[in-house]
From TrEMBL:
<keyword id="KW-0238">DNA-binding</keyword>
<dbReference type="InterPro" id="IPR013762">
    <property type="entry name" value="Integrase-like_cat_sf"/>
</dbReference>
<keyword id="KW-0229">DNA integration</keyword>
<dbReference type="GO" id="GO:0006310">
    <property type="term" value="P:DNA recombination"/>
</dbReference>
<dbReference type="GO" id="GO:0051301">
    <property type="term" value="P:cell division"/>
</dbReference>
<keyword id="KW-0159">Chromosome partition</keyword>
<dbReference type="GO" id="GO:0015074">
    <property type="term" value="P:DNA integration"/>
</dbReference>
<dbReference type="InterPro" id="IPR050090">
    <property type="entry name" value="Tyrosine_recombinase_XerCD"/>
</dbReference>
<dbReference type="GO" id="GO:0005737">
    <property type="term" value="C:cytoplasm"/>
</dbReference>
<dbReference type="GO" id="GO:0003677">
    <property type="term" value="F:DNA binding"/>
</dbReference>
<keyword id="KW-0132">Cell division</keyword>
<keyword id="KW-0963">Cytoplasm</keyword>
<dbReference type="GO" id="GO:0007059">
    <property type="term" value="P:chromosome segregation"/>
</dbReference>
<dbReference type="InterPro" id="IPR044068">
    <property type="entry name" value="CB"/>
</dbReference>
<dbReference type="InterPro" id="IPR011010">
    <property type="entry name" value="DNA_brk_join_enz"/>
</dbReference>
<keyword id="KW-0131">Cell cycle</keyword>
<dbReference type="InterPro" id="IPR002104">
    <property type="entry name" value="Integrase_catalytic"/>
</dbReference>
Amino acid sequence: MVVEEFIDYIGIQKRYSKRTLHLYSDYVKELREFISPEGDDEFLGELKPQVIRGFISAGLESGLSSRTVNLKLSAISSFCNYLQRAGKIEANPVKKVHRPKSSAKLPLFYTENSLANYLSNEVENGNFLSLRDRTMVLLLYTTGIRRAELASMNISQWDKERRVIRVNGKGDKEREIPVTEELDKALKIYEAEMKEFYSENRYDKLFLTDSGQPLYLSFVNKVVKRELSSVKGFTGKKSPHVLRHSIATHLLNNGADLNSIKEVLGHSSLAATQVYTHNSFEQMKKIFLTAHPRAKKGG
C-alpha cells in the first residue's frame, strides 16, 4: 500500500531516523483512518485542503499542542510531496493549510556552577560502573553529542593522536569534535579500567551496559538522571538533551560564535542553533537588572 511504500522511501532514500519513521507512519495512517476507516488507498482522492483542515481541527479540539499538530502537518506534507512526484495527486494540499503558531519555548540548561560541582566530586575508587557513568556524562556535556550518538559510538571513533571524536550524526553526516584536556584524561583512565572490567568487548563500543552489551537509549537516560540526582544544584528535567543544551548555552556565553557551535552540535542549519541566543540574552538581562543601580531602586 502507498503509505508503506512512502515509509520505505523516506527510510531508505532519505535516511530518516527510526523515531521519525515511526512518527511519520503513525501520523499518515491516522489521517488515512480519519478519511477512510477501511484503511485502503481510496483516501488519496480525498486529500484536499478542507479535509486536512478538518483533521487538524479535530486534533486541536482533542487537546493536542500546536507543536504536535505542526509535526503532523510536516509528515502529511512530506507524504503528499511523495504522492505528487509519483503522479498520484496533482498538488500538495498541505500548502494551503494554515499552521498553528507554536509558543516559543527556550531550551532548558544547567548552570556552569552546577556541572562544575558535579564533576568536582571524586568517583569511588575501584568502582568501575561509577567511573563509566561519570565519563558518559562528561562526554555528553563537553562534546554536546546526542544520546544516540553516544550509544552507538565505537572506540575507533576516538582519535587519540589528534584528540578529536568522530561522530556519526543524523543522516549519517560525520563531524569531528575536539576533545578537551579534561575529557582526554578521563577517557584514558576509563579505557584502562574498561579493559579490566569486561572480559571482552566484541562490539568495539566505547560504552557498554553492566553486562557488557551495547547501550540502548533508555539506559543512557537512566545513567544521566541517576548521576545528576546524586548532587545538589540540578532542578527540573535531568536528561542527555539538557546537557546538550547546556554546553551550547555555555559556549555562547563564553564567546564562541554561532557557526562553531552549529558545527559541534551537528545542526543542519544556523536557525536551529540561534535558539540558544535567547538563553544568553535572558541571562544577560537578569544580570543587568540585578546589577543596575536604577533597577535596584525601582526607578
